[in-house]
Amino acid sequence: MAFDWLTGNNLPQFWKNYVSLFDNDEGNSEKRYVVFDMETTGQDWKEDVILSIGAIGLSNNSIAVGDFFEVVLLQEKFSTQPTSQKTVIKESAEKVVEAEAMIRFLNFIKDSTLVGHNINLDIEMLNFALKRLDLGRVRNQFMDTNVLYQRWKNLPEDSQSSLDEVCDMLKVKKNEMHTASGNAYITSLIFLKLRNKLGIRD
Amino acid sequence: MKNPVAQSIADFLKHFPPFEILENAELVNIAEQSRIIYLDKNQILFKGGDSVHNDFYIIKNGAIGLSITSDAEETLIDKCDEGDILGLRPYFAKEYYLMSAKSREESIIIAIPIAFFEPYIFSNQNILSFFLESFASQTRNPYDKERKGKLISENMIVSDQVADLQYYQPIKYTKNPITANPDDVLRFIAKTMANSAIGSVIIEQNQLPIGIITDRDLRAKIATGQYPIDIDARTIMKSPVITVPENISVAEAQMVMLKHGVGHLCVTKDGSNKSAITGIISEHDVIAAQSNTPGVLLKQTRRAGNAKELKYVREKLTDLIQNSIDTNIPISHISNIVAEINIELTRRAIELSVEKMGTPPPALFTWVNIGSQGRKEQLLKTDQGNALIFEDVEPEIYDNVKSYFLELAESVNEFLEKVGYEPSPKGLLASNSLWCKSLSGWIKQYNSWINTPAEKGVEVSTAFFDFDFIYGAPDIEDALMENIRNNMGHNKKFFGFLAADTLRNPPALGFFRQFLLEGDGDHKDKFDIKARALEPLIDSARALALSHNLLEVTNTYHRFKQLAELEPKNAELYEECAEAYNTLMRFRTEEGLTNDSDGRYIDINELSKTDKGKLKNFIEPINEIQDIIKNRFSITYIN
């Protein structure tokens, strides 16, 4: 597979475009973050699949409301039911197959730094989805709001705080709908707050 | 692709003007162009002096304080919260912000690019007028002060912070103070101090302050005999002298005095004792600076024992007006305060005059302010206008009673003149035999005005329909008012006359909406704001208010406000007139304060472009209100 990548054979154009973005890491005038959240069928990245992704862009230390992404995935087999009763997907939304969702997502995130709450699971889910398409791993740098929260509160490294707990602590109004894009929005507020409190600058 | 985040922002925006006018799709469109900013507590959104941003801001959560910085001190001017708009300065000034905006708590701000929002302003008349009115009317939300969603730009309202604000303003002090040399003999210095009525002398050497001699030193060191009177200044003086820089604030001056336990500070060019002396600040300056508050002035008025003390209060009042105008306090607010103090001044003048008469008044009487004083619309020192009514007495003693009151009125008028109120040029004074008479005499007078208005008679009488009973027996007032009310009814002739009187003023704007200026005379090419703008409003308000039997309300602003309630279908116009009156008054007052005049004639060319536009906008309602008058009253009785 490494050979394939080097020659560029068998690799779809969107992947080539995506990878090429990381070739020159210098010269990016404005650093862009993409905060995202996804709904999945469960916590096991080998077995479970992505139901929807919501993402929003941040630049200049502010949320760019128009820089927004949402995709709902068409599920081929419904054998695995959403385990979390919180997850709600609007039936009316347009659904696309996993491959199309990945194309759109990579196209949106480009070479931004990804941000999410407990992002590792989400990254693994993405990697497995890409693997099913015979592609490599996600190349973006990423930051975890849970880790930022630990740092701010001086919590032990293995501690897990749910998005709702963090919202309460930071006085961010919680998202009642628990959609991927709703979570992405509040995660982005949390990210802005934590960055500020920890004094992180671009 | 639907954007639920943009939708939620649109949902938020639609609760606040001017966004409420827009369609959901437009709001979503705007939201998609917006950014969301998070500010921690005490973080700066923009800073006074910074070049303007590309965005303006709406507060989604939290609170932002707007402040100005003077004298290295930050003074909070306003606090904005949810739904308030700020940072609109780029709309009319391209360079920099005047005020600083800083979060007072954790805040979430929506930033909307000005360039993107601009088309909405110009394509939507309602939004455009919201913005223009906000800039012109000095209120943040011209539609409703109570409702959320205020617009904040340059305009600021300071209501309860008058005292605070003055406290942080630069102190007024004596410039070029009297100084002496260290070798001068103390007897000579004391003489200088006595002659100039000052409490301290700075001792200088080569123009640098090296010490100070105060009353306290003379008392403690000379009067006690500790030192002889012919000793030199060097031995007695306190050294070093405490020096401060120019433009120090009242608060700071007081702090320095307390810190060093001194009553005098020497002002130097750079604040050190190694630079040239430019002034001296005494404890009295600090107290005087803080005494410009309405409460203190009222107290001082009540305690005043002579005309000189009352005059002092009147001078302080002018400072207060100047400060209030500078800090954009609403004009109706200023008028109220000034009217209260003016009334208190007159009352005190009456009391002092009664004392001076030596005998108590032989009958009950009441003192009436008329004309602009009666309307409580005197911001600058203008004419006095007053009348005196005494109760009916036996015919035998009538002449004696009248002569007592004439003498009393004479004394009050003189008193007020000394304080600074010129007597009415038309002789509308209580000391005028015509305007000092018994209740039945006054009833007869009013009846003849109402029933047989002659051209000259009405000219005079309109001032008498703006009355304010400020001193004396309420029974007399009630009886007179009752009579006027019954008599006036719907006397067509009388109202026809009032209406004609209202329309006699020259127009303010020409056919091309240009200002009509004075053609000749001393004020050539100036705009007569009194005759062309204020009087038509005052007269209209009077005619309309009287036609509703509204006798007690005499203030033009309040008359229009009341009319708006009484005639809902014209409410909008009346509200406009009320605002217009206040704004025009502000123009006149500013002009008056600048040129130490009555502010009647305004040099249009000296106004900024925005002020010109503002002035024009507020002159517009005059034509409309005059149309109402023309249609409502039959003006058959002209000449």
Strand order of the largest sheet of chain A: 4-3-2-1-5-6
- Average pLDDT metric of chain B: 81
Strand content of chain B: 15-25%
Radius of gyration of chain B: 30 Å
Name the CATH superfamily classification of chain A: Ribonuclease H-like superfamily/Ribonuclease H
Let me know the number of strands of chain A: 6
Uncertain spans of chain B? 136-165
Query: How many discrete domains of chain A?
Result: 1
Task: Give the proportion of residues in helices of chain B.
Answer: 40-55%
CATH architecture of chain A: 2-Layer Sandwich
Largest contact between chains: A-B, 23 and 22 residues
Unreliable stretches of chain A = 83-88
Keyword list:
heterodimer, A: 202 residues, alpha/beta, Nucleotidyltransferase, domain 5, six-stranded mixed beta sheet, 7 helices, 20% strand, globular, B: 639 residues, alpha+beta, Jelly Rolls, CBS-domain, Beta Polymerase, domain 2, 4 domains, four-stranded antiparallel beta sheet, 21 strands, 15% strand
Folded structure, characterized:
The complex is a heterodimer of chains A (202) and B (639). By secondary structure, chain A is an alpha/beta fold. Helix content of chain A is 38%, strand content 20%. Chain A has helices spanning 2-7, 13-20, 98-109, 119-132, 145-153, 163-170, 180-198, and strands at 32-40, 50-59, 62-73, 95-96, 113-116, 142-144. Chain A has a six-stranded mixed beta sheet with strand order 4-3-2-1-5-6, sandwiched between helices. In chain A, a hairpin with a 2-residue loop joins strand 2 and strand 3. In chain A, helix 5 (145-153) packs parallel to helix 7 (180-198) and helix 6 packs across helix 7 (180-198). Mean pLDDT of chain A is 83; it is low at 83-88. Chain B is an alpha+beta fold. Chain B has four domains: 4-156, Jelly Rolls (Sandwich), CATH 2.60.120.10; 174-290, CBS-domain (Roll); 324-488, 2-Layer Sandwich (Beta Polymerase, domain 2), CATH 3.30.460; 500-632. In chain B, the strands form six sheets. Chain B has a four-stranded antiparallel beta sheet with strand order 1-8-3-6. In chain B, helix 9 (250-260) links the parallel strand 13 and strand 14 (264-268). At the A-B interface, strand 3 and helix 7 of A face helix 1, helix 2 and strand 1 of B.
